[in-house]
Specification:
Blueprint (H helix, E strand, L loop, with lengths): L7 E8 L12 H14 L3 E8 L2 E8 L5 H18 L14 E5 L4 H9 L1 H7 L4 H11 L16
Antiparallel strand pairs: 1-3, 1-4, 2-3
Length: 156
């Protein structure tokens, strides 16, 4: 696109269907590496991809000619297919419907990258649940939500 200059930084979060802990430590790096490569191949610039046993965070630059919903559909559909093709879990692997996405300025990028790359410490050492983390994001951005349509959270 001629004469179009943008920098759109998006942090998206999505969860494993049923909130099962289907992303154990032995497969997480491979899943995150696949997602990062997938994003690069599709003109999304990954800044950080990480997560925990039951959810994933992706932080990336997106071009204005691709919609966020198209990008998330691409990431989730292809990564779940890849996980199933490699038989990383027993049965069929799926992501929950939906996602949360949040925009950040260039000056906030390093902090968001640090936050995402420290997910293991965030959840294991600090004991913060995914539900608390996700609700904090929604509330911190002033996003009104209907609790009936949030992810299925385990009792935490």
């Amino acid at each position: 696109m001629a004469n179009v200059y943008t920098q759109i930084n998006i942090h998206s979060v999505f969860a494993v269907k049923g909130r099962h802990n289907l992303l154990p430590a032995n497969i997480r790096p491979r899943v995150f590496e696949y997602i990062s490569g997938l994003m690069k191949k599709n003109d999304l610039f990954p800044l950080a991809v990480n997560g925990w046993q039951d959810h994933v965070h992706v932080f990336f630059e997106i071009k204005p000619d691709i919609s966020l919903s198209k990008a998330m559909k691409l990431i989730k559909a292809n990564s779940s297919k890849w996980i199933n093709d490699h038989s990383f879990v027993k049965g069929k692997f799926e992501w929950q419907r939906g996602y949360g996405s949040f925009s950040y300025s260039r000056s906030q990028r390093n902090g968001v990258i640090r936050y995402i790359m420290q997910q293991q410490e965030h959840h294991r050492a600090k004991g913060k649940s995914f539900k608390k983390e996700y609700l904090d994001l929604l509330e911190g951005f002033g996003i009104k939500y209907d609790s009936r349509f949030l992810f299925d959270f385990l009792d935490e």
